[in-house]
Specification:
This protein is an all-alpha fold. The chain is built from 6 helices and no strands.
């Protein structure tokens, strides 16, 4: 029986936290859309709470973490970007964060649904949903459940501890020169 693949700990950490924040932003965005827009449908329930604020907080946290994850993806993770689903997910995340930063939270509360930034943010929301489904499907196709399980593993190999991350980045940068 083949050993499950090993994923670098920095990838697992940045990918995992980014994935959780994307899920929080996507789901809270669905609730915000249903409550304030709903042109193409609404949820059958409206949970109480300030979902715009929660959505904005998830987006606020995604900005710096997304930059760290993108830096990882463009350097140490570069071979993985050759898969279109990885590139699509990263691009959709960039579009969502960028358009979210251009928006004002009162637009939706005031019923102002006509802004270009909001329309592009909705497109990014749809693209992220599609990208995640395709990314999971591609991961299952390439490595099956062992690959997915390897992303959730807490196993660390020698030389892949958090204290080793700066050395990994330095070695990559030296190779690139």
């Amino acid at each position: 029986m083949a050993r499950p693949p090993y994923q670098p700990s920095l990838l697992r950490l940045t990918h995992g936290v980014t994935a959780l924040l994307v899920l929080a932003a996507w789901l809270s965005g669905l609730i915000v859309y249903s409550r304030y827009d709903g042109r193409w449908g609404r949820l059958p329930f409206t949970p109480p709470g300030s979902w715009i604020d929660l959505h904005g907080q998830a987006g606020f946290l995604l900005l710096p973490l997304g930059l760290v994850f993108a830096a990882y993806a463009l350097t140490l993770g570069r071979p993985r970007l050759k898969r279109i689903t990885n590139t699509m997910a990263l691009g959709a995340l960039a579009l969502a964060v960028a358009t979210g930063k251009l928006m004002q939270e009162d637009w939706l509360r005031d019923g102002q649904l006509h802004h270009l930034a909001y329309s592009l943010h909705l497109v990014a929301w749809l693209l992220i949903g599609l990208a995640v489904v395709l990314h999971l499907g591609d991961s299952l196709r390439l490595g099956g459940t062992p690959l997915l399980a390897s992303m959730a593993s807490t196993t660390l190999r020698p030389g892949d501890l958090p204290g080793d991350w700066s050395g990994q980045v330095r070695r990559y940068l030296k190779r690139g020169r």
